[in-house]
Design a protein that fits this description.
The complex is a heterodimer of chains A (321) and B (520). Chain A has 13 helices and 2 strands. Chain A has 321 residues and is mainly α. In chain A, strands 1-2 form a two-stranded antiparallel sheet. In chain A, α1 packs across α11. The termini of chain A are far apart. The mean pLDDT of chain A is 92. Chain B is globular and about 70 Å long. Chain B has 2 domains: 233 residues, P-loop containing nucleotide triphosphate hydrolases (Rossmann fold); 222 residues, P-loop containing nucleotide triphosphate hydrolases (Rossmann fold, 3-Layer(aba) Sandwich). Chain B is α/β, with parallel strands linked by helices. Classes of the chains: A mainly alpha (321), B alpha/beta (520). The interface between A and B is medium-sized, with 23 and 35 residues.
Chain lengths: 321, 520
Amino acid sequence: MDFDVLLQVLDSTVRLATPLLLACLAGLYSERAGIFDIGLEGKMLAAAFLSAAVAYVSGNVWLGLLAGIGASLALAALHGLASITFRGDQLISGVAINFLASGLTGLIAQDWFRQGGRTPSLPNEARFTGLDLPFVQTLEPVPVIGPIYAELISGHSILVYLAFLAVPATWWILYRTRFGLRLRAVGENPAAVDTAGISVVGLRFAAVAICGVLCGVAGAYMATALQAGFVREMTAGRGYIALAALIFAKWRPWYALWACLLFGLLQAVALRYQNINLGGVVIPVQVMDALPYVLTVVILAGFVGKAIPPRAGGEPYVKER
Amino acid sequence: MSSAQPAIELIGISKAFGPVQANRDISIRVAPGTIHGIIGENGAGKSTLMSILYGFYRADRGEIFINGRKTDISDSQAAIAAGIGMVFQHFKLVENFTVLENVILGAEDGALLRPSLAKARKELAALSSEYGLDVDPDAVIERIGVGFQQRVEILKALYRRADILILDEPTGVLTPAEADQLFRILHRLKEEGKTIILITHKLREIMEATDTVSVMRRGEMVATRKTAETGPEELAELMVGRKVLLRVDKTPARPGAEVLAIHDLKVTDPAGVLRLKGIDLTLRAGEILGLAGVAGNGQSELLEVLGGMLPALGTVTGSIRMQGRDLALTGAAGDGKARRAAQIGHVPEDRQRAGLVMDFFAWENIAFGYHADTAYQRSGLFMDNGALRREAADKMDRYDVRPPDPWLKAKNFSGGNQQKIVLAREIERKPALLLVGQPTRGVDIGAIEFIHKEIVALRDAGAAILLVSVELDEILSLSDRIAVMFDGRIMGERLPDETDEKELGLLMAGMDARASGEAA
């Protein structure tokens, strides 16, 4: 494999890992606070649709992004209401949100645009396009470093940089701030937080809201940066892959980065090598496409060693008598 | 502020949970710089009262005065601000946090952790040396023992500048040595001017540690006494509302024919560890054999193999003869059903896991194990649930289960009443041999008396009883013969009149004082 191809695959890895990473971090905030969120998928999908629709109609991608975040936040609020306020089952609420998003996005897209459940293709002005980082032209001729800088590091949309910056930011918030300490505590033992005089409900809603914002960015990235518009079911299970990555990462931000890059790499490889010929035996494209999902199953089946979820995860908090 | 003022004064506190009146018009004054005990049976309303004081619940009625000032405690934050700290029965610690992180949680100084942690580290060191509360600030909670975890809870309160410390059943999870240490710490805190409220149902702790004691019964405060001017008998009577015998009243045993003979019984657990290393025991009709020992020395395995709880065991060898017939040690012929058919009743050590199904109704629980009885079958297909319920109601009535409602789930009864349900089920079958594990663990003093009486009555009716208990008092007062287990072996047998706690304690630790005395 020559250097250029390698760079192209890695570049594609970064692009494909971005929505996974944003969703994975979204899940991290929520689950660290003790609210399991299987509805990452639905929130991303809703955000993808609304961001594309608003960007198309307004011609302003930033308005699109805001709309996407808004859609995702609305669903997050629903999840919070069901699982925090009314102490419902978090898995059921998440699944319901996924169904809701899947059905509503297609229906509304068809009603608004009449293109078979998709939005019209977005012109470049209504998308997040690649940014050229400083000194790209100057550095390009330098061997090795130049192409790496120009191809791999420069030229992504701003949301990609945002996603990667979110990793150290999340780590810092989680382990260096009061909010992070309380967030981790409420996912482990809400009674400890409650007796310390802090609102369990408030903390959990804050976490769910952060989760909503990040899912919104992830969805908007899918529809307005990675692709040029919304297509039905365009998230294609990325929300679930992000959950698998979260477990793989043992609910830690830096591990989440590596886990998402691994999934991104598999997707990039599948995109690049559609049919691999191994001395007469052709591995069909479907096998390659299935790779990320196969890895998801393998991870969820517990082949990654012991991953201990936050102890109060999935349990509504009820004051004991 | 004058020191004559009570540190805490509650006036007319009432609190109801639905139809249950947990606290009824409670008034109490706690003098500053004292240890004030609150004693009562489970469900008497002690914890509710303290939760109100800590802002966990709001009282329906009543007033709270802290140091003479009327205080509205609307939440825990308000209680902390009023100088109240609480150590709950079940610790409120984040298990995978360090000591330091747990201490600052909710009492951080700013949005960033680093300065808070540094300040807490310094202050913790000062508090530790001032009160003798040594803990490693960087230790992770789940890796330190419960005694240390409790210290962290106390440190949490002190770090929040608590002057009033409430401890709810603090010794429930501690070993006797740890409990002694705790009481030394509490005395030190008292000397430094802190006011301490100690909630417990153990009379011994009240007598040892407190200056004043208040007694609660069924949601009401029935009496307050100076500890020096009262005694365990009076307190027990106040708690239960009638005279309580703290001693078991029984006639000498009249042992009959041999019921159980165990020979060279060895049990290996699934991990391959030898748990029973050759047990020889005989048990006659009409006697109680008490099996003493520190938990984990093979008593549980012995009960399990006798009771037919085989899945927990690996390989079993040796012989068990019951009324002259060899019992199967493994397979279906050795399971709980076969044991019951052989007239062995079993009150398991862990009643919540092995004795009851907590989410099932009382009447269902009373039928378990005997539900295949022909008396409960209507045609070959259906069960006669009506008959089961009538019988359950009758048994609950006779065993004084409160409330006597067959339609209540097992988990909604107190520990003592759960145990009475299990006892009613097993004893009413008139077993030839009753296995009893930890009969009074987590059971109220009133219920203890009742349970002991029932066990003695069954003995007098001619049953053989194997009693396993970690409470030496219970072994000594109930047994006709005592065997001590250590490390999977019987260390020796004694008669209760000819031995004492000291000798049994040595045997439980694997030392035979009599043997070494003879050798000397």
